[in-house]
Amino acid sequence: MKQMLINSAFADQVIVNATLNIVYIKPSLHRDSLNLRNMQHNWLLACLSLFASCACAANDVLFNFAGKSFYNEQHVLMLKAGDQLPAYEVNTSVITVKPRVNSLRNQLNGFYQQNGFQVLRTAATGFMDLQLSGANDYQSELLKLANSGLFAVVEPTSFGRYTFIPNDTQYSNQWHLPQVSAPAAWDLNAGVASVVVAVLDSGTDFNHEDLAAGPDAFDSIWRNPGEDAWADPTDPTTGNGIDDDNNGYIDDWIGYNFDQDTNDGSGLFDHGTGVAGVVAAKTNNKLGVAGVAGGNNSAGVAVMIGNIGSFAPNGAVLDDAILYAAENGARIIQLSLTIIQSAAIDAAINAAYINHGVLVVNAAGNSATPTVDYPASHVNVMAVGASNQFDGRVSTSQYGPNLEIAAPGVDILTTTIGSAYVSMTGTSFSAPMTSGVAALVLSRNPMLTHVQVREILRNSADKVGGYDYDYDVDFPGRSLEFGYGRLNAHAALLLSDSYQTLSGAIFLDGFEGDVIFKNGYD
């Protein structure tokens, strides 16, 4: 019932629109203004109370049966088998039963005839589908069958859904997405634009066909809500030349180039465009590839662009980029780089993580050493290693006690400059996969803290590869090769449903001080 008509003495018509949360009132012409105001006030309260009761009822459990909960969702009867499981539409015309072995055929036939049930089909296993007459409500029919004593099993039937397989033309070449159970995760949530992932890298081609708005009319690029739009959305030189939001950066409508101190976040090196595509290439848009959190033929999570150096990460501006992302609404900061340890970068990471509640994710490195590079080694950064198609460690992937999780990092098909696509290898592409799943978790449950998201990713990871996940009694469930395991998107989203309260805890896993003295993107 989207609208309810209410008769009143003061108005010709009162309409409560429960879909839009609006109460419409058309006053009667013969009422004086004072009485009208008083009566309007009382009736409006009554209408709002009625609306509130209707809104609550839409989500309340109507009844429980055989371990399943039934409730109303926009006038459709739905059922769930558990709090962490998805809801399904009930097939209200059919109930499945299995007669008891001692139930006689004539008893069953008499019962069916008396109650208007019709046997649609009988399986070799003894289960039967009964067509309901429609004369009674669904709950009554369930109870009638259950209380008859004739059946060993009485269960509702439902309409399921096919696991979401996107129509992106090159999806079949993206082995990594099924490996981390992304299609099953997309059945629960494919990403929402309110979750912002800052990709601080070599720049991103914001005009790429699978990132920018095209015929599908949606994109994966963050827009600064405080900054005036460019006159030409594809040309950063067409801004108004004003720092509209007073954040210290002029015309930063889609992010900023910190290395060149301009508002053009694109770059000459395709590393950043590839990383952005892993996170949020538009999904199910009949084009290119699918991102982990690229939506479902609609906007997925938003990529905030931060160019920190086209060919090498500039340590002098990395801290500025981290702070910019944290202060401008990013929930996740995605890094795929190594650099020498810096007090300024440490301070920026700590500010983002502790003060702004931002999850910081970084690639572990590709030097095959038994320690992860900086800044992945920082206590407030989630270090990600690379796995292969057989759930083994990629030989070049760095590992060790600071590694938290692994994700696919071989032949990852993603976006590249010029609306093209390329396969890339390295922990650089394992990290954005993890950032993308973190974004899915926040899309499904936006009230989670960064600490909780980090914990969910760890606790939902698959313990694959045959590694010793209990080598350290202080960190049970953690291995040197894969950390807490290989990323699992579907398990992470299911686990996120059980996190209901905010937590201020901070992970203190220990800090690995060894640093590989090299600068570069992994």
TrEMBL record:
Signal peptide (from-to): none
InterPro entries (alphabetical): Peptidase_S8/S53_dom (IPR000209), Peptidase_S8/S53_dom_sf (IPR036852), Peptidase_S8_His-AS (IPR022398), Peptidase_S8_Ser-AS (IPR023828), Peptidase_S8_subtilisin-like (IPR050131), Peptidase_S8_subtilisin-rel (IPR015500)
UniProt entry tagged with the keyword Protease: yes
Domain Peptidase S8/S53: 194-485
Record keywords, A-Z: Hydrolase, Protease, Serine protease
Highest taxon of the lineage: Bacteria
GO MF term set: serine-type endopeptidase activity
Active site residues of this protein: 201, 271, 428
Gene Ontology BP term (one): proteolysis
Family named by the database record: Belongs to the peptidase S8 family.
Protein name: Subtilisin family serine protease
Species whose genome carries this gene: Marinicella litoralis
